[in-house]
Amino acid sequence: MKILVVGGTGRAGSAIVEEALKRGHKVVITTRDANRVKIEKAAILEKEPLALNAKDIEGVDVVVDAVSVPWGSGKGYLHLDIATHIISLLRNTTTRAVFILGSASLAVPGTDYPAIEDYPKETAAAPWFDGALHQYYEWAFLQWVKNVDWIGFSPGEAFPEGPATGYRLSEGILQPDRNGQAHVTTGNMALAILDEIENRNYHHKHFGVFDK
Amino acid sequence: MKILVVGGTGRAGSAIVEEALKRGHKVVITTRDANRVKIEKAAILEKEPLALNAKDIEGVDVVVDAVSVPWGSGKGYLHLDIATHIISLLRNTTTRAVFILGSASLAVPGTDYPAIEDYPKETAAAPWFDGALHQYYEWAFLQWVKNVDWIGFSPGEAFPEGPATGYRLSEGILQPDRNGQAHVTTGNMALAILDEIENRNYHHKHFGVFDK
Q1: Most buried residue, A73, A205, B53, B137, by CB count within 10 Å?
Q2: Residue A110: exposed, middle, or buried by beta-carbon count in 10 A (0-12, 13-18, 19+)?
Q3: CA geometry: angle at B39 spanning B37 and B42, to 5°?
């Protein structure tokens, strides 16, 4: 398959690119700066995510939005704007879209709404909050979209760089481990995403991904 | 002021263009087909709303989104996509944005939520529903936006072509007249919008507009 990875030079994005290449897929990375691409064998499309157009999507089977916005940059809104832009390009096409959403959009076990809705008020001052809030909006936006074949994956609160060792999925629920924290490596997130890209099991769903 | 009217050849859009020209503003109309523009004195930008870019907005004081999607076209999602696109272009700029939202996003008197949330289920089959639903999503989306100076105006259920005779505003509440229907002419909608463009009284608000 031909997979376009938006944000493919980032931490999560580069793990997805590597896993996709390992499985023999054709990969295109969009990046604002081609010099940042360290991965051979991937094609490079040097442009801003918001400048992607219908032509860039031609022949692409799956768009993966792995953009991450630096904490404290005040640009969390880019999570939302890039998602709405990708969706607008894919309306009524057969190209699938995969979004990495934040852990704050997963529900705490025993509840059925995004955890961020229950965060204490002072949380809003944390440097990560702006990004988490807009990924929560991104998830709310996606639920309005019926004519694009999208799927969302959220990591646990801990999402370190690390190898592919095996993963568990949950339907939008945080799954803390014995130490009380839900965590997933970038390698395991990449495994989950590539498995779903190949298996096409789910549509219009939001999964939590955790280390096995 | 320089005002860009997206959908400026439509019923509501052309009333806004005329009122803006009458008041001496510079007007640019975006249209997919320049042959449709019957109004002299307005500049024409021939492109799809979703193809607008940052350069098109340079020097523009206000963008008015007056796009209407034909009932039954199945393209109601364009209401949402065009709004998210305009917002993405205006982030952290001083250019204002004015959106015409649907009457279904106004609250019935005595309630504090959009009327569409209470519509009977069979309403979903009506030809206007798809557009109304996506204008409701558009209004929900706008409430997430803090770094663009936007404002929304909704007509009553009846929104016929007609002259500017005077209008009333409500803060997001339907105001039926003696005959039980909330109505506003395109001329009165244009008056309300141009008054607010000139007066800059409100920010991040949603008003109902009705004939006086």
Answers
A1: B137
A2: exposed
A3: 95
Is B141 an interface residue toward A (CB < 8 Å)?
yes
How far is residue A201 from each of residues A149, A196, B31, B144, measured CA to CA in Å? 11, 6, 41, 32
| A131 contacts A69 by C-beta, under 8 angstroms | yes
Beta strands in chain A, from DSSP E residues, in sequence order: 2-6, 26-31, 43-46, 62-65, 96-100, 150-155, 167-170, 205-211
Q: CB–CB of B119/B174 below 8 Å?
A: no
pLDDT digits (tens, 9 = 90+) for A14-51: 999 999 999 999 999 998 888 877 777 899 999 999 99
User: Among B52, B79, B81, which would you mutate to test the A interface (most chain A Cβ atoms within 10 Å of its Cβ)?
Assistant: B81
Say yes or no to pLDDT of B39 above 90.
Answer: no
Residue B17 phi/psi, 5-degree rounding, is -60, -45
Is B61 a residue whose pLDDT tops 90?
yes
CB contact under 8 A, B81 and A84: yes
Is the minimum CB–CB distance between A81 and chain B shorter than 8 Å?
Answer: yes
Structural element, H or E, at residue B97? strand B96-100
Q: Using an 8 Å Cβ cutoff, are A71 and A81 in contact? A: no
Contact residues for A154 (Cβ-Cβ < 8 A; gap 6+): A100, A101, A102, A103, A105, A106, A172, A206, A207, A208, A209
Closest B-chain CA to A133: B144
Closest CA–CA distance from residue B40 to any residue of chain A (Å): 32
Exposed/middle/buried for A46, CB within 10 Å: 0-12, 13-18, 19+?
middle
Other beta carbons within 10 angstroms of residue A6's beta carbon come to: 29
Q: Which residue of A has its CA nearest to B90?
A: A81
Contact A175, A204 (CB under 8 A): no
Indicate the average pLDDT of chain A: 95
Helix, strand, coil in percent for chain A, rounding step 5? 35, 20, 40
Report the distance separating Cα B42 and Cα B3, nearest Å: 10
Q: Is residue B27 predicted with pLDDT exceeding 90? A: yes
What residues of chain B lie within 8 A of the CB of A80, using their CB? 84, 144
The CA-atom distances, in angstroms, between A76 and each of A79, B85, B100 are 6, 16, 26
Q: How far is CA B180 from the centre of its chain?
A: 23
Continuous H helices in chain B: 11-22, 54-57, 77-90, 129-142, 186-199
